[in-house]
Amino acid sequence: MTLEVLGSGSSGNCYLLKDSKGLMLLIECGIDIKKIKKAIDFDLNNVSGCVVTHGHNDHCKSINHLAASGIKIYASKGTLEETKIINHHRSFILDPMKKQKIGPYTVLGFKTVHDTKEPFGFVINHLESGVIVFITDTVYSPFKFANVSHWLIEANYCNEILEQKRASGVEDKFLRDRILSSHFSFQNCQDMLRANDLSNTRTIMLLHLSDRNSNELYFKTKIEEEFVKETYIANSGIKLDLNKTPF
Amino acid sequence: METKQTEGTKKTTAIAIAKKSEIETVKDSPADRFTAKVMLEFPNGGSKKLQLTTLQKKLINNYFIKLDGVLKDGEVKRLAKTEQYRDALEFKWQNVNMNKLAQDVVAYSEIGLDPLQPNHINPIPYKNSKTNKFDITFIPGYDGIEIKAKKYGLDAPDTAIIELVYTTDDFKAVKKDKDNPVETYKFNITDEFDRGEVKGGFYYHIYKNNPEKNKLVLLSKKDIEKRKPTYASAEFWGGEKDKWENGKRVGKENIDGWYDEMAWKTVKRACWGSINIDPEKIDDNLQRLLQNDIESVSNRVNKDVDDNANDEIIDMGLAEEVETKKISSVNTTTGEITEPGF
């Protein structure tokens, strides 16, 4: 199993899982459709589907193009309504807290805390990778997770950096309040990892880092030091082995 | 003569005692004791005694009345929870951070914000886990924002018109150009009692003595909804909320809410919130209001995180598996799925 980051952050989010048989699952589609098609090597038939967390453009920009290209879209009812794709015959509703098969992947959607209609995070299971938790664009996770092999988790901003920027006038208060009320702080991300049993965890990847209010090196070092797990920052173009075990 | 004098003195003394007792009775009222406590707690930086105007004292009394009610409501809600989920900290005056509160009520009363007036300012207690006391956070309402803008604003307008525009209304913005020195608009309601759906709103800043400065700002429905709070309650904004029966969540229910009213209030907040503060008018009171405004969002978010984060465990091995739902026919008005298939 591999994970390729096609985009992460407010300029567009898209992640590609690919198993050893070449069967793919797209997580988010907030980048240009041409980039997605290129990344999947125009092999649309082997894409089992695309799961979308919520209806903001940086997560669903190419949703219509993907559906039109024959790729099935999976999201909450609220997200499908918000993206106005609910009537499309390739739209599929994910019920919260129920697992559903998407090709060789089993996906469970759970609610998150964001300023959109019915935003979701996903637990994805595959024989090769084990359990993957994907959680982004949320203030916190309402849930803990069992037996997680890989965490793909947002660490959008650092409280101290955000407050310094606000105090110096670089970050507008309206925007700062919006960030606080809709994104995962690095500190909340750490608390979430602390609250979970990480004994089965192999990797932690930090997603959706803010250009202005984060510090990549600091985040990576702190997580590595505290949790002693392989830690990565989701920079565009990075490709990771996401198997359950390294060998 | 002596007897008369004694009687007179006695009478005067009796009157004085009666007056004193009257004063003490008034002074002993909880609201007055609160004002006295505020004066005691207020850090005055030395020997200078805190001076409060009569209006300020009246407003501080109002802060007491409002807060007392808020604490009582909080305690009722706390006790309604089962012991397992009940916070140990009681909602009572002894558990309130009085020093912070004293500074806040003096500042807000000086600005003229009255908690007993609707939409001026709302006190919300947040537990400070470091001090194990409640910090009272004050959230200015839309009328409070207007008062602040008029008092401290840089070139604040004399007044403003705030309206929602509905699908049946005729609205035309008339922008400023070389032939038209005053920005304005034309607005006509065609059907007063069935105006259709909200499609946006606008505010219009009016400068009576300088109409060239009048400013029209349009907000689309999307702009209004962008300002909708993340934690907006379905009871106010309408929408879906969890349905509970016998202490268990049994699904979702649709709530009508008060969408139009909330949208109008949002436009009003944008109208007066857009006024920049005049640096020359900034004083300690405004600084306090601005600082508390900043802290209010973090306090609310932190409380939500403390109450709800990392709770229930999701175990993929135990989760129920369902067939994927294919949909093709949805009523776009109600969202109801009427039939499956292509």
Structure, explained:
The complex is a heterodimer of chains A (247) and B (342). Chain A has eight helices and 15 strands. By secondary structure, chain A is of the alpha/beta class. Chain A has one domain (2-241): Ribonuclease Z/Hydroxyacylglutathione hydrolase-like (Metallo-beta-lactamase, Chain A). Chain A has a seven-stranded mixed sheet. In chain A, strands 7-8-9-10-12-13-14 form a seven-stranded mixed sheet, covered by helices on one side. In chain A, strand 8 (105-111) and strand 9 (120-126) form a beta hairpin. The radius of gyration of chain A is 17 Å and the shape is globular. The model of chain A has no long low-confidence stretch (mean pLDDT 93). By secondary structure, chain B is α+β, with helices and mostly antiparallel strands. Chain B has two domains: 30-149 and 277-325, no CATH class; 156-273, no CATH class. Chain B is 41% helix and 22% strand. In chain B, strands 3-6-7 form a three-stranded antiparallel sheet. Chain B has a two-stranded antiparallel ribbon with strand order 1-2. In chain B, a hairpin with a 6-residue loop joins strand 12 and strand 13. Residues 338-342 of chain B have low confidence and may be disordered. Chains A and B meet through strand 6, strand 7, strand 8, strand 11 and helix 6 of A and helix 9, strand 10, strand 11 and strand 12 of B. Strand 6 (91-93) of chain A pairs antiparallel with strand 11 (325-326) of chain B.
| Major sheet size, sense and barrel closure of chain B | 3 strands, antiparallel
User: What oligomeric state is this?
Assistant: heterodimer
CATH architecture of chain A: 4-Layer Sandwich
Mean pLDDT of chain B: 83
Average pLDDT confidence of chain A is 93
In whole angstroms, how far apart are the ends of chain A? Answer: 12 Å
**What class do helices, strands and sheet pairing of chain B give?**
alpha+beta
Going by CATH, the homologous superfamily of chain A would be Ribonuclease Z/Hydroxyacylglutathione hydrolase-like
How would you describe the shape of chain A? globular
Number of helices of chain A: 8
Q: From the alpha carbons, calculate the radius of gyration of chain B and give it in angstroms.
A: 28 Å
The figure for the number of domains of chain A is 1
Helical fraction of chain A equals 25-40%
Estimate the strand proportion of chain A: 25-35%
Q: Could you please say which CATH topology of chain A applies here?
A: Metallo-beta-lactamase, Chain A
Which band does the percent of strand residues of chain B land in? 15-25%
Query: What's the structural domain tally of chain B?
Result: 2
Summing up helix and strand content along with how strands pair, one would put the structural category of chain A as alpha/beta
Q: H/E order of the elements of chain A?
A: EEEHEHHEHEEEEEEEHHHEHEE
Give the terminus-to-terminus CA distance of chain B.
Answer: 113 Å
The neighbouring-strand order within the major sheet of chain A is 6-5-4-3-2-1-15
